[in-house]
Design a protein that fits this description.
The complex is a heterodimer of chains A (390) and B (334). Helix content of chain A is 76%, strand content 0%. Chain A is mainly α. Chain A folds into two domains: 63 residues, no CATH class; 297 residues. In chain A, α1 runs antiparallel to α15 and α8 crosses α10. Chain B is of the alpha/beta class. Chain B has a domain of 86 residues. Chain B contains ten helices and twelve strands. The longest helix of chain B has 18 residues. Chain B is globular, with a radius of gyration of 21 Å. Classes of the chains: A mainly alpha (390), B alpha/beta (334). Chains A and B meet through α9, α11 and α12 of A and α2, α3 and α4 of B.
Chain lengths: 390, 334
């Protein structure tokens, strides 16, 4: 297993270097003279500073030298300075945007995968019944709806008309006027606590799988999950730091509801159909018949045997989708005024802010690679047949 | 002969409803099974063997309809039970060794845990962890597996081992009947024989009744007391295995035995069975075998022959059974 992980990691690094090289040359091959356009004739930069900027950015050097310097700097985690927001550091811009995007889109992703999985499981089981038609038509209808319109209608109904939820943005500025934290600190804390709890739960479940006896194993798993929830509550309600930050976290959470709900409504149908076909395939397997013959109830057959096995392709698609979380979604971010990575990506590319675009693409590339790697590891956990020896 | 039957299948009629019409899969089949008896059902693919097996557990396909007849377990009609009561009989009273036993294990759970699932369901009060482990170990030893294998996943077992483990699982709740549907078809001949012999030994030791289902008459001959020959959804001959092998009375049984080579007997020319089994959407009138039968008379295409007793516990459904020669039987004996 260790050897496998090391080999995969080495492959990932190599692949990433290739990816970065190709992206770098593609972006620098964009038509137009960056030096002239951005700096040599830029009226926003005083003439005496123009030459300094060009030299500082290394734009006066030959392309290959620039490329070499970029690669060296990149692996020292120096992503350079933004062209358009010069002299702001690219890493600062991304550090500002990334947490907001991750919190929103990860929450939405988990939510619509869960909804889609439940709906798909239900559909497969009630095949041919009336409920199937309602859920399928409803789900696919939402899936195909013109998304910005749908989001606007949701804002109009729930925020403007009913006034249940905030209209837009990711926080309420009035409440934050004297806040002792920046929004990003809260975003990061929220993300880290959820991540820590999830990792804890996953670790307990994995360790518990090694217990051979049935009842202690189930007990350990359930206990681990419950303890994770307790730890989360304890942090936000019990500790001084958590309690101080909680109202602000609550404000952000309130702003999350509508975009997450809209993303869920629009996206769950794809997962639902995937789960459904996977379930239908599993239900034709012989072991489903064995489970029935043993006298298990239909529910136990469905949840313990059919759904557990049908989970595999859904998991793959989920982890790969996680990789796309950091590029956010330009439509969602625009409609909900949620300034995140989607906006950064689009504007940096259209304005030829090459260092910013490069860094953004690199993060997506890294996430995709890590996602694929995680899928392989997770597959081994979910399906003992694929577990790697050694 | 005097003990009351454990299981009675009484004039069972089951059809599959399809878009093209009703498929007459099981037609007026009756047989009974005593405690400790080994019954074999033989026939070509699609003759209704597996349909009967599935009906006994009431796990028939969704489009199956029971037209008439009863399946009685200790006098209780299983077909009339509500689903949740039927579930309590599954595995506890009637367990099954499946046709596709290679895939009968869920790949994501340990073998021991899958056996445990049945134990947890059917034992009240529940067995403790120690009792479960001990029971599974005993079952594994009984079928010739290392008890430590219970903590392994199905893909770590060879085909033969998986089949042994399936037998262990079938035995786990002390059922009074085991249905073995093509129990060894997917295995090589040597493992096939080992497993059949062990299954027979265990069955005799524990005094369970067993129903073997196979298309391979030779497999069944070695391990059963009684044999039923099926053709196109009908039971055409039923009798003591020795008797049926020595003196098959139904032309189909006769031809089936003539087309099977004998390993120990003298060399003889095999007589192939001509033609194909009928389409059960539209079965032939009268005797369903008459289009392929060399002894058929006009009557056979009009009237359905009833089961007629022709010897001690030996019944046959044929108008002209007396025409069937007795000669090949000596050679066809396994």
């Amino acid at each position: 297993m260790t050897r496998y992980v090391v080999r995969r990691l080495a492959q990932m690094v190599l692949l990433f270097v290739v990816f970065l090289t190709v992206t770098w040359f593609l972006l620098y091959a964009l038509p137009g003279d960056i030096v002239k356009q951005k700096f040599a004739t830029n009226p926003n930069i005083p003439p005496e500073a123009r030459q300094v900027a060009i030299e500082r950015l290394g734009l006066d050097k030959p392309v290959l030298i620039q490329f070499r310097d970029y690669m060296i700097n990149f692996f020292q985690l120096d992503f350079g300075l933004s062209f358009n927001q010069y002299p702001r550091k690219v890493s600062d811009i991304i550090a500002e945007r990334l947490p907001r995007t991750i919190v929103l889109f990860l929450t939405a992703l988990v939510s619509y995968y869960y909804a889609g999985f439940l709906a798909g499981k239900y559909l497969a089981w009630r095949r041919g019944k009336r409920g199937e038609m309602v859920v399928t038509i409803g789900g696919v209808g939402l899936y195909t709806v013109f998304y910005p319109w749908f989001a606007l209608m949701a804002i109009w109904l729930f925020a403007a008309e009913l006034g249940w939820l905030p209209i837009s943005k990711f926080l309420n500025p009035d409440e934050w006027r004297n806040a002792p934290f920046t929004a990003n600190q809260v975003f990061i804390r929220l993300f880290m606590t959820v991540l820590a709890v999830s990792v804890f739960m996953a670790a307990v479940v994995l360790l518990a799988n090694r217990i051979r006896d049935h009842r202690p194993r189930t007990f350990a798993k359930l206990g681990g999950v419950a303890l994770g929830v307790v730890l989360f509550i304890w942090y936000w309600w019990g500790t001084a730091g958590g309690a101080l930050m909680r109202p602000y976290a609550g404000d952000i959470a309130e702003h999350l509801i509508l975009p997450v709900a809209v993303l869920t409504a629009v996206n769950f149908a794809g997962i639902m159909l995937l789960t459904r076909s996977s379930m239908l395939e599993t239900m034709r397997e012989d072991f489903i018949l064995t489970a029935r013959a043993k006298g298990l109830s239909e529910r136990a057959v469905r949840d313990r045997h059919a759904a557990r096995t049908a989970l595999l392709p859904v998991t793959t698609s989920l982890v790969l989708a996680v990789a796309t979380v950091i590029d956010g979604g330009i439509l969602t971010e625009t409609v909900f005024s949620w300034p995140g990575m989607g906006e950064v990506l689009v504007t940096s590319v259209s304005n030829e802010d090459i260092p910013l675009a490069l860094a953004s693409f690199s993060f997506i590339g890294i996430m995709a690679l890590v996602g694929h790697f995680l899928v392989d590891i997770l597959y081994g956990v979910l399906d003992p047949r694929i577990r790697v020896g050694g | 002969m005097s003990s009351p039957p454990l299981l009675e299948v009484d004039r069972l009629v089951m059809h599959y409803v399809t878009e093209k019409g009703e498929v007459s899969a099981v037609e007026d089949v009756s047989f009974s099974l005593k405690k400790g008896e080994a019954l074999g059902l033989v026939g070509e693919s699609g003759c209704g063997k597996t349909s009967i097996a599935m009906s006994l557990l009431r796990l028939q396909a969704d489009n199956a309809v029971f037209k008439s007849g009863e399946i009685r377990l200790n006098g209780e009609n299983l077909l009339a039970l509500p689903e949740d009561e039927m579930r309590r009989h599954r595995w506890k009273d009637i367990a099954m060794v499946f046709q596709g036993a290679m895939n009968a294990w869920n790949p994501v759970y340990r073998v021991g845990d899958q056996i445990r699932e049945a134990l947890d369901l059917h034992f009240r009060p529940r067995l403790s962890d120690a009792e479960v482990t001990e029971r599974i170990s005993r079952l594994f030893e009984m079928v010739g597996l290392n008890p430590a294998m219970a903590n392994r996943y199905p893909h770590e077992f060879s085909g033969g081992m998986r089949q042994r483990a399936i037998i262990a699982m079938a035995l786990s709740c002390d059922p009074s009947i085991i249905i073995a549907d093509e129990p060894t078809t997917a295995l090589d001949v040597i493992v096939q024989d080992q497993i059949l012999q062990e299954l027979k030994k265990i069955q005799e030791e524990l005094g369970m009744a067993i129903i073997y289902i196979s298309h391979d008459i030779a497999v069944i001959a070695e391990v059963t007391d009684t044999i039923g020959i099926m053709y196109a959804g009908k039971l055409v001959e039923l009798g003591p295995t020795v008797e049926v092998f020595a003196r098959p009375k139904h032309p189909y049984a006769y031809l089936l035995l003539s087309s099977t080579p004998s390993v120990t007997g003298p060399r003889r020319k095999l007589a192939p069975l001509e033609g194909e089994p009928p389409n059960l959407l539209n079965p032939p009138t009268g005797c369903r075998f008459h289009p392929r039968c060399p002894y058929a008379t006009e009557r056979c295409s009009i009237d359905e022959p009833p089961m007629e007793v022709v010897g001690d516990g030996h019944q046959v459904a044929c108008w002209n059974w007396q025409e069937v020669p007795v000669t090949i039987s000596q050679e066809a004996r396994p």
